[in-house]
Amino acid sequence: VIVVKTNAKYFRISPPLNGTYRIINRRDVVFVTRDELKPATEYEVSVDVDRLRPNGKKWLFGTSFDFKTPDFVVTGLRAFYNFDVVRNREKNVVGELNFNYPVALAELKKHVRMDLDKNEIRFDIEPSNFPTRFYIKSGPVARKDYDTYVKIVVTEGLPCINGTTPLDDDSEHSLVLPEKTRLPVDDVRSYP
Q1: DSSP at 69
Q2: ω into 39 cis (within 30 of 0)
Q3: Beta bridge partners of 151
Q4: Within 13 A of 173's CA, how many CA atoms are on the CB side?
Q5: For residues 44 and 36, is the Cβ–Cβ distance under 8 A?
Q6: CA dihedral (116, 119, 125, 131) positive or negative
Q7: What's the CA gap between 111 and 153, in Å, rounded?
Q8: How far is 64 from 161, CA to CA, in rounded Å?
Q9: Under 8 Å CB-to-CB from 26, ≥6 apart: which residues?
Q10: Contact 123/153 with Cβ under 8 angstroms?
């Protein structure tokens, strides 16, 4: 490849990236970005054929392509029921949420819900020392005389920090709270 104009931009990249160009083997143009790529972002690139001309050949025809950084996803969602066996005390449901990119706590609170038998229940979310991990804790939850179901849902549309494409599907985790233990009846006797 022969350079037609020096210090020119050979590619148009959207969203824009700052960087430098290198020409290798007089055939290949390499763009080295100075910026970090944004998470969950699709980049569109078009070659500026007015700035490049092959050796002794006809002009290059325009070309474009795209690439993207990995999608924003929930990498882990799990929950546990807290029950104090020694005191026979019902407590709550606690869980952990993990993502592949950092998430703002305020945004996360808008996109998480916790249900007990299809009814929303109160919960808190706390950040961890990692910007991709959060802890969730319900208010008091007690077992009933039948199996109950707890579901934690992270809803679509949650954005990651500095990303351009939000979470595109709901992620959920379900937990079954078994019915309360009933006192066993070992023997029934009648008295006259």
Answers
A1: P
A2: no
A3: 115, 174
A4: 19
A5: no
A6: positive
A7: 8
A8: 28
A9: 1, 2, 55
A10: no
